[in-house]
Amino acid sequence: MTPPPSSGGSSEKPITSTYHDDPEMGEIIRDFVAELPQRIHAMRSAFSEQRLLDLLHLAHQLKGAGGGYGFDQISAAAARLELALKSLQTDRAADAAERAKVAIDEVTSLCRRATA
Amino acid sequence: MSSEPTQLQSSHAVILVIDDSPDVHRLLGARLKSEPIDLICAADGAMGLRMARELRPTVILLDIDMPGMDGFEVLRQLKDDTPTHDIPVIMLTGMQSPQDKVTAFDLGAVDYICKPFDLTELRARVRSAVRSSRLVQMLAQRAQIDGLTGLYNRAHFDARLKDELSGCQRHARSLSLAVFDCDFFKQINDTYGHPAGDEVLIGIAETLQRECRASDIPCRYGGEEFCLIMPDTPPDDAFRVCERIRQNLGAMVWPRHPERSITVSVGLVGARKPSHELTAAEWLETADKNLYTAKQTGRNRTIITDLMSGSTLAKAG
Fold first, then answer.
1. Is A1 helix (H, G, I), strand (E, B) or coil?
2. What are the start-end ranges of the E strands in chain A?
3. Which end of chain A has fewer CB atoms surrounding its CB within 10 Å, N or C?
4. What does CATH list as the number for B6-142?
5. How close, in Å, is residue B38 to chain A by CA atoms?
């Protein structure tokens, strides 16, 4: 498995939930953030082992969940990953695989920057 | 009165979430915590259908994109199945194309919420669906209730007798049916006026409700006739129930006319194991014949037919 490229500057800044000051959300946001490393591991493993359907399912779930916890950027990146994977299903060209790799790196980077 | 689905007895609405994502269950749990609702969750379409049939939730929140059975198929089955047909379904999905929305509404969804959902909007839409559901439920119930006495009406009785008879025939369980008719009711109306007659009917209904068991189903058949369906009740037990009701009515003192006693005649029919050959209409006809005999032989009495033994007995007050 290739580690995601590190990007410097402002893109390394932590991202917080838009609901960070909502008392009814505090606990579940902490749980969500705590589980993100496992999600990333599962997604990157599925990608490197070319289990596309598993990865598609994980990306779809993250797309639906991220915004709900106040991480719209994660949802948007997961949606781009889902789209890239769908095009990879129909188009096996090298650039489709490259788009999927860029998308999963983007999701990984955002998830690593997420804080409760 | 008979037992109804749980949610009718609860002040809390029951919301069933059918979604394969544990995140959605967790988010909805947090987001709807302050609402007066009970939230239950199903992780896939098949489990959701089972829970909907068993629990009859007030509203269903349904995802579309699920592995196995997708949300459209779940919705199709909910709308095809009588017990779940009227439960409002809100789609809660990441699929945002106009075609998906049109398909959902065509299949019978009442609303469509896109993920990620906005808290305020979600709460407002769930509240609105709960309100509509309760209104529809109330109207459906009222259509089955007699306006004067508050008992179930003739329409409910006809459907319910068929259902109970069929259930008792299938499972070889006992069943009894009684028809009560107020004696000399026309005379009461002619002598004291229709408002007094109405009071008598309300009094009979109250006595029926008070004296019957929780599993019995008292109904106003029409005019001064009342029916009592007694599931899981053999004829001899039903006879004791009817006699208790008849004697209580006869002993009642009517506040406006204490000099006048009110009596009822009762036609009763029952069987320990109802035969498949007799229809609900034939059961009612037998009870009605017994009522006629009770009237002809002096009123204020119960005539019973045990369909298993073929015997007919009379008990006079």
1. coil
2. 15-16, 114-115
3. N
4. 3.40.50.2300
5. 17
**Cα dihedral sign, A81-A83-A86-A90:** negative
Would you state the pLDDT for residue B312? 66
pLDDT tens column, A65-91: 898 899 999 999 999 999 899 888 887
Q: Report which DSSP code applies to A68.
A: G
B44 neighbourhood in chain A, CB within 8 Å: none
Q: What is the mean pLDDT of residues B202-228?
A: 95
CA–CA separation, B57 and B74 (whole Å)? 15
A21-75 per-position pLDDT tens digit: 988 889 999 999 999 999 999 999 999 998 999 999 899 889 888 988 999 999 9
Q: Strand pairing partners for B267?
A: B179, B303
Q: What percent of chain A has pLDDT over 90?
A: 59
CA of B25: which chain A residue's CA is closest?
A: A65
Which class in CATH covers the domain with range B154-316?
alpha beta
Where do the CATH 3.40.50.2300 domains begin and end in chain B?
6-142
Query: Cβ–Cβ of A68/B67 closer than 8 Å?
Result: no
Nearest by CB to residue A72, choosing from B21, B24, B116, is B116
| Cβ-based neighbour number of residue B223 at 10 Å | 11
Collect all residues of chain A within an 8 Å Cβ-Cβ radius of residue B21: 61, 64-65
Per-residue pLDDT of B21-41, as tens digits, reads 899 999 999 888 888 899 999
Pairing of strands B225-231, B37-42: unpaired
Where in the sequence of chain B do the CATH 3.30.70.270 domains occur?
154-316
Q: What is the mean pLDDT of chain B?
A: 90
Report the residue from B31, B33, B115 with minimal CB separation from A64.
B115
ipTM of the complex: 0.79
Cis ω for the linkage preceding B116 (within 30 of 0): yes
Contacts (Cβ under 8 Å, ≥6 apart) of A99: A84, A87, A88
DSSP code at position B29: H
- CA–CA separation, B311 and B111 (whole Å): 59
Q: Pick from A20, A69, A73 the residue to mutate for testing the B interface (most B CBs within 10 Å).
A: A69
CATH topology of domain A23-115: Four Helix Bundle (Hemerythrin (Met), subunit A) (1.20.120)
The DSSP secondary structure of B84-108, one letter per residue, reads GTTS-EEEEES---HHHHHHHHHHT
- DSSP annotation of B265: E
Mutate to test the interface with A, among B70, B115, B120, B121 (most CBs of A within 10 A): B115
Amino acid identity, position B209: Q
